[in-house]
Amino acid sequence: MADSWQECMELGISIARNAGKVICKALQNEQSVMLKTSPADLVTETDQKVEKMIISAIKEKFPTHSFIGEESVAAGAECVLTDNPTWIIDPVDGTTNFVHRFPFVAVSIAFAVNKVTEFGIVYSCKEDKMYTARKGKGAFLNGVKLNVSGQTDITKSLVITEVGPERDPKILKTLFTNLEKLLNIPIHGFRAVGTAATDVCFVAAGEADAYYHIGLHCWDIAAAGIIVTEAGGVLMDTDGGPFDMMCRRIIAASSRAVGEAVAKHIRAFPCARDDEQIGVHANGN
């Protein structure tokens, strides 16, 4: 059966690269932009086209597999992770970046069996960076092994986070209070590039020491999550508890010490689990 999953991963890498070509070509043209949950929550025809292309290509090879896709769920499909082999897809992670031609846009594809992620693929297509990880076999960037920074001191850490499309004043107050509390520790600084999958991969590559986010979705971090843990990092809930892909909260860190320090200084705002909603909207970037 392990060989079957390797075949799936090889197919996923090929599909991600092809999807990246479509995205890069589309970046040259003006986009038709639609709104989801707020004036800052965007979707384009390219998001929908790429997701359909990815799912169609996988179904042709593996017709019995299940899918959780950002645009499919937004259109009303269930967001439920079962024991069946399941592909978890964000066709264009960083849609707002894509609309503005900001050069961080990624294709994110994860594959889970029995609710456990077997591999993850994040292709930052403008950079031509292919991040991959297979359970128990390490994480790689364009074939070169990745390792987290190993930083254990929060005061020496560079932290990544995103505001996302939330514009509710109470939520914004929580988000900015979290920033202020971490800056007052102090930390070295914050960064944000607008794509959750790439953010987590920066931690996996040792280019940042932690990432946290509240309100994102399983397709944003399913692939990057296994990439950071296979690179030696840790995942946890924003309260410091065990990570749950469906809970919409994440800390990815270079060490448990840094992750727990982040958790100690932030608080979450309420958001429904992915698997408790029908036709959830993507709270991405």
Can you characterise this structure?
Helix 1 packs antiparallel against helix 2. The strands form 3 sheets. Strands 3-4-5-6-7-8-9 form a 7-stranded mixed beta sheet, sandwiched between helices. The chain has a 5-stranded mixed beta sheet with strand order 11-10-12-14-13, with helices on both faces. Strands 1-2 form a two-stranded antiparallel ribbon. It is of the alpha+beta class and 285 residues long. The chain is globular and about 50 Å long. It has 8 helices and 14 strands.
**Global geometry:** globular
The succession of helices and strands, N to C, reads HEEHEHEHEEEEEEHEHEHEEH
Number of helices: 8
Rg over alpha carbons: 17 Å
Sheet with the most strands, sense and barrel status: 7 strands, mixed
DSSP strand count: 14
**Distance from first to last alpha carbon:** 36 Å
Low-confidence runs: none
Give the strand order of the largest sheet, numbering strands 1, 2, ... along the chain: 3-4-5-6-7-8-9
Q: What class, by secondary structure content?
A: alpha+beta
- Helical amount: 25-40%
Q: How large is the share of residues in beta strands?
A: 15-25%
Mean pLDDT: 94
Assembly level:
single chain
